[in-house]
Amino acid sequence: MRRKAFLLALTLAASVGAAQAAPIVQTAGVAVIDFGAPSTFGFTFGTPVAIGSASSVTISVIGAYGDGARNGASITPTTPGALVSTNLGGGAVASAGGAASFAGAGGTGGLVSLSSIAVVDFGAPSVFGFAFFLPTGSPISSETLSQGAVAGGIVDGGFDGATLNGQYSGGGLAQFLVKAGATAIGSHVVGASPFDDTSPFSGSGSALIPCSALAAPCDSMETGLSFTLSGGGDAAAMLARHELGGDALAGTVLATYGIESGSGTFDCATIGGCTLLTTTLSFTLSGGGDAAALAVRVVVDSTSVPEPGTLALLGLGLAGLAAARRRKG
Fold first, then answer.
1. Residue 20 falls within a domain, yes or no?
2. Each residue's pLDDT tens digit, 96-152
3. Is 185 part of any domain?
4. CA dist., res. 240 & res. 108, Å (int)
5. Could you give the number of structural domains in the chain?
6. Which is nearest to 155 in space by CA: 180, 120, 114, 129?
7. pLDDT tens column, 288-317
8. Boundaries of domain holding 112
9. Is the dihedral of CA 322, 325, 327, 329 positive or negative?
């Protein structure tokens, strides 16, 4: 009878199995404009951790970059092939992201407003709204062309999917207004929702705005961004471009930065344990009032280790089995 009890203990120990620690997830976003001259940007994000074993690290970056002067735009990693990298205490363990560029729209440009934003919802579903204003300088009293574009990307912070929904008419993500004082003379909405974390998103549109003397001269332009994020620590990054006047765009003024990913491993036990996960973004924009908006996700998975209780129970079962065999002998 005792032997059966000891064997039962051994079977129970084997069925408990190993415990898997919950992964550590870091999400972040950056949004920048170079304001004319080529510029190098650097950002570092830190997340406290307590890791004492081998871990796998995966990293991804997504977003958009845009042209402020119709002369093209480029985004170049400071370290070739490493727009973004992670560190657990012993050097980079994962990196991702490469250079991207486009030639630009060309033609005769008008007055340009370029805006960029990045947000994190920190768990709960969240609504975000932004408005950017630019005076026209001299009031415009003739019909003029308004052209707007928006692009960006989102990353999933909770392994439950990430969705972004525009809040303007028809699910639009961005609204471009031309105003006379406080009165909107004309507007157009771009972007169709919902967007998800499987690819970057973009949209564009234009409208002829009747800035005639009878309707009152147009004296400002406004760009609005309004959307909801689904929650779970999701992050979004996007930029919008509004051009008033000039000829119709024939080429690209905004481009999406597709999902770039990388992975690596690091054994925190070799340095006595890791206490801080750092993620660094470092890149150069080409100048001419160009912009970039990027969202990043890092996931650290510790190696599975048996629970202490399981190990003790397994030891008890083995000892009991040995005792049963001695009694039988």
1. no
2. 999 999 999 999 999 999 999 999 999 999 999 999 999 999 999 999 999 999 999
3. yes
4. 19
5. 1
6. 120
7. 999 999 999 999 998 644 433 333 333 333
8. 27-303
9. negative
